[in-house]
Amino acid sequence: MSRTGQKAGDPPPTYRRGPLKAAWYWLSSVALWTAFKLLYRLRIEGQANVPLEGPVVLLANHTSHFDPAIIGGATRRQLSALARDTLFVGPFGWLIRSYDAVPVDREGASLAGVRATLKRLKQGGAVLLFPEGTRSADGELQAFKPGFVALVRRSGATIVPVGIAGAHEAWPKHRSRARLGERIAVVYGAPLSSEQAGDCDDSRLVELSRQRVEEALDAARRLGGGG
């Protein structure tokens, strides 16, 4: 039996939203994909690298307000993402709750948020994390915070590195409004299984994950993002 309580040979658990939430997610994903395709000539590569079943942690670079929407619209799994607890107010709060966003404090260290994320992964969910902790001001990949390591180890999740290029040019951190006419690309890199993660100590897993995200980001730039 695994550390998640799953017996050897059993299919991995996979989190399912209720019918209304699932339908809302897919409809809005199609709308987002269409909008970004038309407005930013969105290109996507490597979607098949995201497992359709079982717990998955997608690790992505973070440069823009657009990042969660673009990755959520492009990924073939329905994702949960972490969001600052201060955002869970008013109409926007309702909106991100409808996507099963997990509230965390400004430093991303809320114990309740960590528990909620771990619970979702143990249920077999797919979770989007930005391990830099905040948007990069210059569009370059920053150092990774190690908080995702415990989530991966305790849930047995597969890691999928994601690189997004062009979102920084479209809506950088310092601008209040987005620009039109930029090109955006998303690349999903080769996954790291829970067994591969288990062969690494914590510092090596952080280093390897960052390397994989950087490779995916370089591939997204070659695909035309930001060009």
Structure characterization notes:
Helix 1 (19-40) packs across helix 2. Strand 3 (79-84), helix 3 and strand 4 (102-104) form a beta-alpha-beta unit. Helix content is 40%, strand content 15%. The protein has a seven-stranded mixed β-sheet with strand order 1-7-6-2-5-3-4, with helices on both faces. The model has no long low-confidence stretch (mean pLDDT 90). The relative contact order is 0.19. With 227 residues, the protein is an alpha/beta fold. The chain is built from eight helices and seven strands. It has helices spanning 19-40, 67-74, 90-98, 111-122, 147-155, 167-170, 194-198, 202-222; strands spanning 43-45, 56-60, 79-84, 102-104, 126-129, 158-165, 185-188.
What structural keywords apply?
7-stranded mixed β-sheet; 40% helix; alpha/beta; globular; 227 residues
